[in-house]
Design goal:
Elements: E1 13-36, E2 39-61, E3 73-79, E4 82-116, E5 120-152, E6 162-165, E7 177-178, E8 182-183, E9 194-195, E10 197-221, E11 226-242, E12 245-251, E13 264-265, H1 278-281, E14 284-285, H2 288-297, H3 316-319, E15 323-339, E16 343-363, E17 366-367, E18 370-371, E19 378-401, E20 404-415, H4 419-422, E21 426-429, E22 434-437, E23 445-459, E24 462-474, E25 477-488, E26 493-504, E27 507-520, E28 525-538, E29 550-560, E30 563-572, E31 575-580, E32 583-587, E33 590-600, E34 605-612, E35 618-623, E36 629-634, E37 638-645
Parallel strand pairs: 22-26
Antiparallel strand pairs: 1-2, 2-4, 3-4, 4-5, 5-6, 5-7, 5-10, 8-9, 10-11, 10-12, 11-15, 13-14, 15-16, 16-19, 17-18, 19-20, 20-23, 21-22, 23-24, 24-27, 25-26, 27-28, 28-29, 29-30, 30-33, 31-32, 32-35, 33-34, 34-37, 35-36
Length: 647
């Protein structure tokens, strides 16, 4: 590496194996009452009980680990500043196995009232929803190996990454063992002479979510060009939190390897669609539930050890991921509708006030070995945020001819940060000196949106349209990485980390055009298609997150009597997602194809067949250049048959 000091390579290359069992029961009820011809009252209830237990197993070649791999580098190939191939002797590989028991229960209640008078009308709605769930129990085990291997990403993006072991360990369950530390001690006499290794952790991470809302809208019909006035008020109060507790698992001495946990070879279609070698394609996996039972029962304990206790404050890694967010929003508006014959539309003004509180633990007793491990060593700190927005809007439709409509609109809008970004959660990786967290001080997206469109209805059931738009955006949110000093438990010293957090990145402008076409031909055949071009750039020249310059959708269809069929093809060009560890992150262009076929046997019975992701499209995430893959995913095809009976 001395000859290539600026070369960039992967920290690790891993292939994951994910299994999940999903069970969901839904219950619905609705009541409708019309006590008078002018008044209708509706009540709806929805309950969902679900579980999402899963096991995720990732086998890493950890070539970027400074202590266990980089100093064992024996050969390297660098192309255009990218480490495309590297060979290591007796370097670190890791098998991470995460068994997770997750559940979700939610209840939603909604009461709606509609009243219509001669000129007045009133609509009122009130609702309450609550949910709890998240990770009820998660047991994480880590197994280590030291072997000779080569990592090759020279074929990216078509062949994103291959690891080849000199002696294949990927099909050998005895090759990966718990990290038992090192030293010479008598397991029956206590920890003297032993250094502990890290075998994983046990955590619980339940979440709750609750919202109450109410809204009233009143309208009054007028005579003249302005034919209706409408005004109203809406209140929403939302609270969400995460409560995390956990404990790290210390391992003393050799306690076993992955052969203890019912190993088996992966299914024959594992990594189908990826250009990899047989070692990766035929690797082993273990029984996640068996590993979880072993860790939970303390099977790794030496005679003098006691089982570690799962607590909130035993480790800063878990304490810092407890958070609570409360957000209240008040909104009032007034709107006027107008119609002059050839021209119609509305204009109005909305006022919004948002108040939020984001709470989490902050260490108040930093010791030489990190933060203290009792509740007294931490303080619950709440950050508050308030902001007001005045949001005017106007929409106009002009009939230029009987079959030609011009539409114009202008609006000031906002989009609040999501709750995860607003939280003060925090995590660190002591080995590679990176981390991440939330930001309670985020401001909402603000945007001035201008639209102009022309629609030509050139025949029945047909339209050709073009829309031109401009958006002037402030406070867009971007993941940004900057240095921060934190205590490193592995090094027992304060260390500088590269920490990624969401931040308001500044202003941006978006310009574009959208073209739309739809037409029904003879015998029930038809076509729907649209294309959007967007030119978006921040004031500092950076790209705007999640914006593709080009998007295309094409959907041919057939509808005739009881039979219908539709294809849906979509494609979008590459897009920028954020900055992580000083790298710009992108997703490569990708496409998707879905299809549905339906047959109505009668007004009461119908059958539908659907296929999703029929092209088994690849999602390719990379850093700065497609030659440096960050994550590559295939979700597989999904086929579904539905029988609907209405009565």
């Amino acid at each position: 590496m001395a000859a290539n000091p600026d070369a960039i390579g992967l920290n690790a290359l891993a292939a994951s194996y994910f299994e999940q069992q999903r069970d969901r029961d839904s219950y619905m009820a609705a009541l409708q009452w019309r006590p008078t011809p002018n008044l209708e009252i509706n009540f709806d209830w929805l309950r969902i009980d679900a579980s999402y237990d899963n096991t995720n197993q990732s086998m890493f070649a950890f070539q970027g680990n400074t202590w266990n791999a980089l100093d064992r580098l024996t050969d390297i190939t660098v192309e255009d500043g990218i480490i495309t191939r590297a060979t290591f002797d007796n370097a670190l590989s890791v098998l991470d196995v995460q068994y997770r028991e997750a559940a979700m229960t939610s209840d939603s209640y909604r009461l709606n009232l509609e009243w219509t008078g001669d000129r007045w009308d009133v609509s009122a709605v009130a609702g309450y929803t609550t949910a709890d769930g998240g990770t009820q129990r998660q047991l994480f085990g880590e197994f280590l190996n030291w072997s000779n291997y080569t990592v090759d990403i020279s074929g990216a993006p078509g062949r994103p990454g291959v690891v080849t072991y000199e002696d294949n360990i990927m099909d050998d369950p005895t090759a990966f063992a718990f990290d038992g530390g090192w030293g010479a001690g008598d397991p029956t006499q206590g920890p003297t002479g032993w250094n502990s290794g890290w075998g994983g952790n046990i955590v619980a991470k339940p979440t709750t979510d609750e919202e109450q809302y109410a809204q009233i809208d009143l309208g009054y019909e007028l005579m003249g060009a302005i034919n209706r006035i409408q005004f109203g008020y809406k209140y929403r109060d939302h609270e969400t939190d995460q409560r995390m507790s956990g404990v790290s698992i210390p391992i003393y001495g050799y306690v076993g390897d992955t052969s203890m946990f019912n190993p088996r070879q992966v299914p024959s279609n594992y990594l189908e669609g990826f250009d990899v070698n047989d070692q990766m394609r035929t690797r082993f996996v273990i029984d996640g539930a068996a590993l979880a039972d072993y860790l939970a029962s303390g099977g790794y304990l030496q005679p003098w050890q006691t089982a570690p206790e799962v607590t909130v404050f035993g480790n800063a890694e878990f304490t810092s991921q407890n958070w609570n967010i409360q957000e209240a929003a008040h909104a009032a508006y007034v709107q006027a509708d107008f119609d002059t014959g050839r021209m119609r539309g509305n204009f109005g003004l909305r006022y919004v006030r948002t108040e939020s509180e984001s709470g989490g633990y902050t260490c108040i007793n930093q010791t030489a070995s990190g933060c203290g491990t009792t509740e007294a060593d931490w303080e619950w700190v709440v950050a508050t945020k308030e902001y007001d927005n005045w949001l005017p809007s106007v929409n106009v439709a002009i009939d230029l001819a009987d079959d030609l409509i011009l539409r114009l609109s202008a609006a000031q809008v906002i989009a609040r940060p999501n709750f995860a970004d607003m939280s003060n959660y925090f995590w660190l990786s002591d080995q590679i000196l990176t981390g991440g967290g939330g930001n309670p001080d985020l401001n909402p997206y603000e945007s001035l949106n201008l639209h102009a469109s022309l629609e030509w209805y050139f025949q029945p059931e047909a339209i050709l349209g073009a829309e031109f738009f401009y958006k002037d955006i402030d406070n867009y949110i971007l993941q940004q990485t900057s240095p921060e000093d934190h205590f490193n438990q592995a090094q027992q010293a304060v260390t500088t980390y590269q920490i990624s957090r969401p931040a308001n990145a500044g202003s941006a402008q978006v310009r574009g055009v959208a073209l739309a076409y739809q037409q029904t031909f003879a015998y029930g055949f038809g076509l729907l298609a649209n294309y959007t071009y967007v030119d978006a750039e921040a004031d500092n020249g950076d790209p705007l997150p999640y914006n593709s310059n080009h998007q295309l959708n094409i959907s041919p269809f057939y509808e005739n009597g009881p039979f219908s069929a539709r294809l849906g093809y979509s494609w979008r060009s590459e897009y920028f997602t954020g900055v992580d560890r000083a790298n710009n992150m992108y997703v490569d262009d990708h496409e998707n194809l879905d299809a549905t076929v339906s047959w109505a046997f009668s007004d009461q019975v119908s059958m539908t067949f659907a296929g999703q992701n029929l092209l088994d499209s690849e999602y390719y995430n990379y850093a700065d250049t497609v030659a440096l893959p960050r994550g590559v995913y295939r979700t597989g095809r999904k086929l579904m048959a539905t029988l609907a009976v209405n009565f």
